[in-house]
Amino acid sequence: MIRNVIIITDGDSVARRAIETAAKNIKARTISASAGNPTPLKGKEIVELIKQAKHDPVIVMFDDRGSPLKGDGEIALEVVARHPDIKVMGAIAVASNTDVEGVECDLAVTKEGEIINGTVDKSGEPYWDSHKICGDTVDILRELDIPIIIGIGDVGKMNGRDDFHRGAKITTKALNYIISQGGLVNGPTR
Question: pTM for the full model?
């Protein structure tokens, strides 16, 4: 059975709480064991957990702990995204201050919850000079066939706008957008 997955390139403890809250908001499942800084599981282990999830979509976190190199998070992400039983619906690419090449985003969600045709920085402020988002776990996304990539600021933070106590509204908005484009809610499959 093919499983529908959404990738998020962050996994620290603050991000984990926000992602779990956002997943609950959209009635998705979260692989909380994939959270960590860096990602504590191998790609194969994450695939097995995805297969055990009660329903789709399944939200999975990947983190390289600030490394500009291809770290544990990107290696695990690549294994998951290339697995024949996994359909990646989209990715949320999280901005950080890491010096990397970055990845082109289709859209971004600002800390105000606005969907823009640009990108954002770590604090969720719009950045109009480029469509590239830079973060420690995003470069691998260029090598994968991901139908939609949404840029976002630091998950769970953004000056409190994405705090899990306040409903993780920014992450929820990004997840909802990916789902609407992937055919699980009213949108057509891309």
Answer: 0.92
